[in-house]
Amino acid sequence: QITLKESGPTLVKPTQTLTLTCTFSGFSLTTSGVGVAWIRQPPGEALEWLAIIYWDGEERYSPSLKNRLTITKDTSKNQVVLTMTNMDPVDTATYYCARRPAHSLNIFDLWGRGTLVTISS
Amino acid sequence: DIVMTQSPDSLAVSLGERATINCKSSQSVLYNSNRKNYLGWYQQKPGQPPKLLFYWASTRQSGVPDRFSGSGSGTDFTLTITSLQAEDVAVYYCQQYYNPPYTFGQGTKVEIK
Q: Would you call A109 and B97 a contact, using CB atoms and an 8 Å cutoff?
C-alpha cells in the first residue's frame, strides 16, 4: 500500500520560514522515473503546483515562487522536505505532497491528505 | 506558463444525465514526437485530496468507472460523465504536464440538479 503524509506547523507568522515534510511508504524515490511534488490549494481555490524532486535529484520549481522554495529528499528516511521562506498571509493553504509515477508522466497519481497551514500574526 | 481555462465554472446535472467539462490550454500540449497529449484530469471531493482520473488526455486511471471519459487533442479537451451518479459530485481539474510549471485549471464544480 502506497501512502504519503504531510507534516509541519499549522500556524506560521508572516516573514517566517515554513518547513513541511512528506513521509511516504510503498514506493522508493530511488526508482528510476519517480518523483515527489508539492502542490497547494488556498481555501476554496484551485490547485497550484509548487515544486518537484526526481529520483535522480533533479529539482524543478514554480518560476513565480522559485526564489522562496527549496525541495530536498532523504531517501533513507523516505522523506521529501519543502521549505518556503518569507511567508505571507496569501500563502495560507492546504499543502499536499504527491507522487509522480514514471518517466515523462508529470501527473500525480497518489496524494497525501494535505496539511492546512495558516499564515497569521 | 501554460494557462489552463476550464468551462463552465460550475454545472448542475440531473442524476443519470450527461455532464461535460471543457478545458482549454493557452498553447498545444500535444508532443509531436510521440503524438501524446500531456493532459490529466482529477476529481476532488469535499475535504479530500485530488484523485487522478485520466492521463495522456484519455487514458483512464485504474479503478475509474467507465462512465468517465476523456477526449481532445492539442489545446481543447473534454471530460465527460455519461450518467451522473450522486458520488460524482466534486470539483474537477485539468492539468497540463507538457512544460513546467505544471499548471491546473481553475476547477469545475459538478452538482446534482
A: no
Show residues of chain B in contact with A47, CB under 8 Å. 42, 50, 93, 95, 104, 107
If you average pLDDT over residues B8-37, what whole number do you get? 97
Q: How far apart are CA A14 and CA A10, in angstroms?
A: 13
Question: Measured between CB atoms, does B50 come within 8 Å of chain A?
Answer: yes
CB–CB of A47 and B95 under 8 A?
yes
B13: which 3 cell numbers? 446535472
Residue A17: DSSP 8-state: P
**Nearest CA-CA partner of A97 in A12, A39, A48:** A39
For residue range A23-75, what is the model confidence (pLDDT) as tens digits? Answer: 999 999 999 999 999 999 999 999 999 999 999 999 999 999 999 999 999 99
**Which chain B residues are closer than 8 Å to A96 by Cβ?**
49-50
Q: Got the DSSP string for B16-84?
A: TS-EEEEEEESS--EETTTTEE-EEEEEE-TTS--EEEEETTTEEPTT--TTEEEEEETTEEEEEESS-
Beta-carbon separation of B93 and A96 below 8 A: no
* pLDDT band of B34, cuts 50, 70, 90: very high
CA distance A108 to B10: 24
